[in-house]
Amino acid sequence: MTLGRKMSSRSVRMPSSVSAEFSPIRTLFKASVARRRDLPASTIDLWPLTLIGEDAEYGRCLDWLDQQERERASRFLRQQDRERYVLAHGGLRFILGLYLDLAPARIEFSLTATGKPALAGLRPESAALTFNLSHSHGNAMVAVAQGREVGVDLEMIREDVDALKLAERFFSDREQLHMRSTASESRSQEFFHYWVAKEAVLKAEGVGLASLQSCEIDWSRGSDRDGVPVRLAGGSQQPWVVRTLDCGPGWVGAVAARESDWTINPCNSCTAATD
After folding, report:
1. Same domain for 142 and 174
2. How many CA atoms lie within 13 A of 208 on its CB side?
3. Looking at the structure, do residues 85 and 209 belong to the same domain, yes or no?
4. What are phi and psi of 257, to 5 degrees?
């Protein structure tokens, strides 16, 4: 969604224990990578990026994209949207290359049965690597996991939304009741907290917005620190858990994965050189 102005006030929810600090993508590309990056199964690496680059960074990213990605980039009418798409997907390729020990241009993607992007053509030792990308208004997040599906969502909190009307369309009855009981000045903030949590779960599953109403977040059953369990219509064999992120004033994000035996490791551009 693109719905207006950024809010200056902070979220009404207690901040997450995980702080995501955005790093310029140009700094990421300057990092010298000494060795392949390892990732334990219990850790989800999170890479927050600012999608601002000079001509050199944009050119590198464009060179790394495959034909399908370039064609999609060319369809954006606004130059800024096109540049942000190229930088986000070039940054994704660069980050995945740290784990796969591959040049960004050599990374191949496929789609799962539900249409979720996945890695293709990997060696057996790399086949369990999963990822997810979200970008919004010039910032992006890449989540990388090992042996479990992962979803991430990032949104700029905006004040000129009809939170109750949108909740009626996309939220469960229980979530709508919570929204109606929230003070009017806090409803936009609360709406976006729900939105990123639900989107992160659905992106992890690889399903679309049509399933938003069947994905229910019950904040009373958990905490941002420990992870909030998620109810899905039809029930899943393993429960999904979502954790929200402290992304700074005016922003909110969330990461979702199955079970609760995982932690988030916030990475930055220096991590590529020092880990």
Report:
1. no
2. 4
3. no
4. -160, 165
Q: Which two tokens stand for residue 245?
A: 């992120």
pLDDT, position 26? 84
- The enclosing domain of 208 has a CATH number of 3.90.470.20
CA-to-CA separations, 216 to 6, 84, 206, in angstroms, rounded: 26, 31, 16
- Write out pLDDT tens, residues 18-47: 889 998 888 888 765 545 788 999 999 999
Give the number of domains in the chain.
Answer: 2
Which residue do the tokens 């995980």 mark? 18
Domain assignment of residue 212, given as a range? 155-258
Angle at 34 between CA 95 and CA 261, to 5 degrees: 55
Between CA 236 and CA 39, with CA 19 as vertex, the angle to 5 degrees is 60
Quick: pLDDT tens for 84-124: 999 999 999 999 999 999 999 999 999 888 888 999 988 88
